[in-house]
Amino acid sequence: xxxxxxxxxxxxxxxxxxxxxxxxxxxxxxxxxxxxxxxxxxxxxxxxxxxxxxxxxxxxxxxxxxxxxxxxxxxxxxxxxxxxxxxxxxxxxxxxxxxxxxxxxxxxxxxxxxxxxxxxxxxxxxxxxxxxxxxxxxxxxxxxxxxxxxxxxxxxxxxxxxxxxxxxxxxxxxxxxxxxxxxxxxxxxxxxxxxxxxxxxxxxxxxxxxxxxxxxxxxxxxxxxxxxxxxxxxxxxxxxxxxxxxxxxxxxxxxxxxxxxxxxxxxxxxxxxxxxxxxxxxxxxxxxxxxxxxxxxxxxxxxxxxxxxxxxxxxxxxxxxxxxxxxxxxxxxxxxxxxxxxxxxxxxxxxxxxxxxxxxxxxxxxxxxxxxxxxxxxxxxxxxxxxxxxxxxxxxxxxxxxxxxxxxxxxxxxxxxxxxxxxxxxxxxxxxxxxxxxxxxxxxxxxxxxxxxxxxxxxxxxxxxxxxxxxxxxxxxxxxxxxxxxxxxxxxxxxxxxxxxxxxxxxxxxxxxxxxxxxxxxxxxxxxxxxxxxxxxxxxxxxxxxxxxxxxxxxxxxxxxxxxxxxxxxxxxxxxxxxxxxxxxxxxxxxxxxxxxxxxxxxxxxxxxxxxxxxxxxxxxxxxxxxxxxxxxxxxxxxxxxxxxxxxxxxxxxxxxxxxxxxxxxxxxxxxxxxxxxxxxxxxxxxxxxxxxxxxxxxxxxxxxxxxxxxxxxxxxxxxxxxxxxxxxxxxxxxxxxxxxxxxxxxxxxxxxxxxxxxxxxxxxxxxxxxxxxxxxxxxxxxxxxxxxxxxxxxxxxxxxxxxxxxxxxxxxxxxxxxxxxxxxxxxxxxxxxxxxxxxxxxxxxxxxxxxxxxxxxxxxxxxxxxxxxxxxxxxxxxxxxxx
Length: 884
Known about the structure:
Blueprint: E1 9-10, E2 19-29, E3 35-45, E4 54-57, E5 62-68, E6 71-72, E7 76-78, E8 81-84, E9 94-102, E10 112-116, E11 119-123, E12 142-152, E13 158-161, E14 164-170, E15 175-187, E16 193-196, E17 199-206, E18 212-219, H1 228-245, E19 253-259, E20 266-267, E21 272-276, H2 289-304, E22 313-314, H3 320-339, H4 342-364, E23 376-377, H5 386-403, H6 405-419, E24 423-424, H7 426-435, H8 441-449, H9 451-454, E25 460-468, E26 473-481, E27 496-503, E28 509-517, E29 521-526, E30 534-537, E31 546-548, H10 553-562, H11 566-585, H12 599-610, H13 616-623, H14 628-633, H15 640-657, H16 659-669, H17 679-702, H18 706-717, H19 721-734, H20 738-750, H21 754-765, H22 774-782, H23 792-803, H24 807-810, H25 816-829, H26 833-840, H27 853-865, H28 872-882
Parallel strand pairs: 2-12, 18-19, 19-21, 22-24, 25-31
Antiparallel strand pairs: 1-23, 2-3, 3-9, 4-8, 5-6, 5-9, 7-8, 10-11, 12-15, 13-16, 14-15, 17-18, 20-21, 25-26, 26-29, 27-28, 27-30
Helix pairs in contact: 1-2, 2-3, 3-4, 3-5, 4-5, 5-6, 6-7, 7-8, 10-11, 11-13, 13-17, 15-17, 16-17, 17-18, 17-19, 18-19, 19-20, 20-21, 21-23, 25-26, 25-27, 26-28, 27-28
């Protein structure tokens, strides 16, 4: 790919590489200050590309030697590329040897080869391999790797790389070596090495095919007791992929390694997955139910990449959703299948949709809006987004909806038959699913369906119902549209599967099915009805769209009480809450103390809470008010402090009005026996936590000290982190004076547990802002001895929890939050541009803010943009934010 103007890279400019690399033989002499890398490659010219010089990518490398077929050769450096012109003619393979050194201990970007806690790690996706050696660092160049690692044996007793260990031994100088061979061709972004003081949990398994494999989870000494759940999740992942899709583990061993310094959640390097400790380490004493669920999901995600991402990879980075959207869909399906029963599956679906609507929908409506398959980028790290991942997963889910579960499995089988071992495109995947199901709606509508890959923005589906009593006919008119986004003023109609049901006023189901909307406007006709039905539209959230239907309260209450679709039952409750919140927000001069929730809404929530047929996990979701960010997205002009005040007032109203019911919920669900993170037990704990928070909120309003005292006692007595942290959060969220005592005790108990301290920091930075007290607290937390800006997890726990997850505290009328943000973005950019760019996204939606916040936010963004030596990562974000 060539670079366009202003360093922008365009998908339309894709060209095959001028050279192919067949084999790579790497030798590492590992040293924190000066690691030596000898890279021997076998290359050949690409006969399909006009002859041109070989251009190898490299960053922050010291070049010592370049040999072609064993002989010295001339070269030059151009824009971080090593350029070789005097290469053998013809298409016969030739040898290229490059010797370089790098300084892993100085690598704060955590991209390439770096040191963390006296151990070596790599992160090569997307473009980190060029920080290890000069290379054609692009995903369509796939090679076979042999890796020799040499290091001091006492300091680095464990030496790991991709593939299979073929040789190891001691050397004469106190060092030792390990030789690894990966039998599968791979792109450079999947390369990995690890060296350090590590211990492993091991498990031998036998696949359905009868092959034996060694599974290993490596961690630092002292953390081995927190790896059982990760290992169980890995074993479940291997079994599920083989059972669901016929995809078996293809290596002798599969390794996971955890490190506390990592920019991402985890990385799917072939056979050697490197994880953020957050997604590996868990015990009932240190991890919440949410942590256990996240570990299961992320372990599954990275393992599933072994096939969808590794065996078949991306032709270019614009195709990122080919592996990420598909693999998110696979990990969602995995977690739903493991959940088992329908209600637990529904809870997982609701949780996934909440993420989509609170994070991806705003991205679609902001300056960083881009299609699932982007057309251009300045910095690829900025496109590891919720659009590529979560919306990409929804696109894959719609494919499964259109061809059926079995049809999708057949499509996956054809995809691997066609493309195993190759670097391909999103089009190749969609074509395989369609070709395996030639009679399906997907096959018939494929060109139109692929607009989901090329058009940015969230489609809107407006539904209008009309019942004619004389004929007994109900007509439902569906109209789709999509707002303009940068570079895409006009959008063509999408293919939108819409799950539909009709309910009678008494809740009886009159009709159900799936309609595929393809035109701008379509009308569906339902004859033979005795009365106007209540439509249940977009069941199961069958497409990533915004549904506009003018439901009455009576209709929503019917859906909440009777809908057979759990998602729409939950959605009805959310709509009831949204309607009330927006009504209060829109009333000028209405003080928070004047907010009075109406009796029908309160009674509906009471009915849900008391319903013996509903699972506790579902109740917790249904009784949780919509997020402040989601409420903000429903408004044209946003005052985050106003939204926060209204939502808090509604919470306190529900807490007081349902006081007896919350007590019942707490007492009924508080005991769960021996701890297990299964869906039923975790749902009971979630509802108990919500009940305790509401009881503490009600106590705050009434001045009663009983429930805060009970919360403190539960905090002290808890046998697991979920109950302990829920009790702590109840005290902090309600602003009770006992919170300070509990926070001190919590820190003393877990001062040596980094991941638990992240929770402690995040809880305080994300606390409700009462009188502007959170920002001063955040500044104090940054001075805490346990805070480090260089550790991404710790930076996220404080700075991101405040700037990105606490809108009521961050969007201050005095602009102090924005000044803090701009200082932190600039400070982080000099250390770790990827983390800084993520933080820069906190002000994406500044144009929607009410004054004076709008002007102050723009000024803060401009302050960052004016810094002359910004990274491409941050510059792209702030430049797009400021664009008209």
